[in-house]
Structures are given as C-alpha cells and as structure tokens.
Amino acid sequence: MEVVIVPDRSAGGAVAGGAIAALISRQPDAVLGLATGSSPEPVYADLVARHQAGGLSARRAQAFLLDEYVGLPPGHPQSYRAVIERAVTSRLDFRSQSVRGPDGNADDLLAACATYDAQIVAAGGVDVQLLGIGSDGHIGFNEPGSSLGSRTRLKTLTSRTRADNARFFGGDTAAVPSHVITQGVGTILTARHLVLVAWGEEKADAVARCVEGPITAMVPASALQLHPHATVVVDEAAAARLALAGYFRETWAAKPSWQGL
Ligand code: GLP
What we know:
Structural class: alpha/beta
Order of helices and strands: EHEHEEHEHEEHEHEHEH
Number of strands: 10
Shape: globular
Largest sheet: 7 strands, parallel
Strand content: 15-25%
Bound molecules: 2-amino-2-deoxy-6-O-phosphono-alpha-D-glucopyranose
C-alpha cells in the first residue's frame, strides 16, 4: 500500500485527481468508481478544473457509484445519484447513460444488487475506485462486521453513521435512511486501483487502523491491505496516528515523477 501525506486536502485533490486524469488520458473509455461524502470533493474539484481548462474529457468514460440510500424518492437531493451528478458528473462531460448507481427504489432490492455487480463485470470492471473512509473505518456503506468477501448487497446503517450523515439531512438523524445498497468489500477489491482519501483529525484513528492495523471485518477499510494497488492520500491531520509516517514521507519524496500513483 502506498501512503501519500500531503499538506492539505487541496493538494490531496490534485494528487488523486492527477492520477485519475492520467488514466483517462491514456485510456479514454476508463471505468471510474465514484464515491460520495465530503472527502472526495477536492478530487472532483481538481477534475472539474482540468476539464474546464480543456485538458480532460470524460465523454467516453463510464462511472459506477459505490453506494445508495434505499427508499429516498427519485431525484431527492441527498440521493447519492443526485450528489454525484451535482459534484462531478454533470460538471464533466460524462454521458448520463454512462453513469450508473445501485437502484435504491427497486421493487426487488436483492435482484437490483446482483444486477449491479453484473453491470460492473460487463463493463470490464472498475479501473480506479475512489474511496472515503467513515470515522468507524467503513468504506462505501460496509459497516464494521461486513464480510471482507461481500458483494453488492443491502445493509443497515449504524446509528453512528446515520448521526455522521445527519448534516446532509438538516441535522435530523431520523431523516437519514436506515437502509442502503453498497458495493461489498469484495466488489471494491475487484477494482484495479483503489484510491482512498481522508482529511482532518477526525479521520486519523480510522486511517491508522486501515493502514497499520490488523486486517479485520471490524475495520472494513483494512481490506485495502489485501489489494495489490492501493493508494491512501491523507493530509497531515489524518496522518497524525500513522507510526510509519516518516517512512511514507521519504518514499513519496523519493518517488520518480514518471511513476504516478
Ligand atoms: C458515507 C459514504 C462513504 C464515505 C463516508 C465518509 O458513509 N457512504 O462512502 O466515505 O460517508 O464521509 P465523509 O467523506 O463526508 O467523511
């Protein structure tokens, strides 16, 4: 696993955005895995800036969302589909039919989960999967205890995650749906490159457990240690509890620029 420690989230957005832009440049029909939450916002801002400057086109790319709430009315502003459209896909030149997410309003939710995994496989798999991390170490909506081999499925959120996400629902925890569809940890691990971004001291403990703790279902993000190409981009505050921070700084400083992430 490569850990890149940057001065602030804007610098981190440029590092992760640069890697995604480089992928699209060498492979215009790349399949991107997009994540919601506030953590990926600097990455999306970087990609939008590159697009506006004329250096990046997502016209031939495809995108798959990581997760979705169950039962929000279609078009609800906090549905992850709507969030991703606002934050990134409508601001790049993605074709709308090339952006897919789990169907949280399907009559048959279990069938929708299986269909979603099949769509990812049919697209040739995800080339780069962007990830945030929950304060309890979750990725996507794979809460602690999630099988590290899990596939896209229905999950129940913990009260901590619902409280964390209440800020998007006017501060009302009860308004946060209790059920979601999320790519499983095993699904996420099938992506060819994982890029997890985290900022701020409130993520420091989760980042340390993800990078340096034991691999355990209690910290779903620790499954990144099993992946042959995983990159963790963090600011100084989120890196504060990493025992190997000094080593990570040395390796990043010594890395040849041609190598990329
Ligand atoms: C939600 C999302 C995750 C995200 C997490 C952290 O649970 N499903 O994908 O990583 O929130 O969000 P934030 O980046 O806003 O801290």
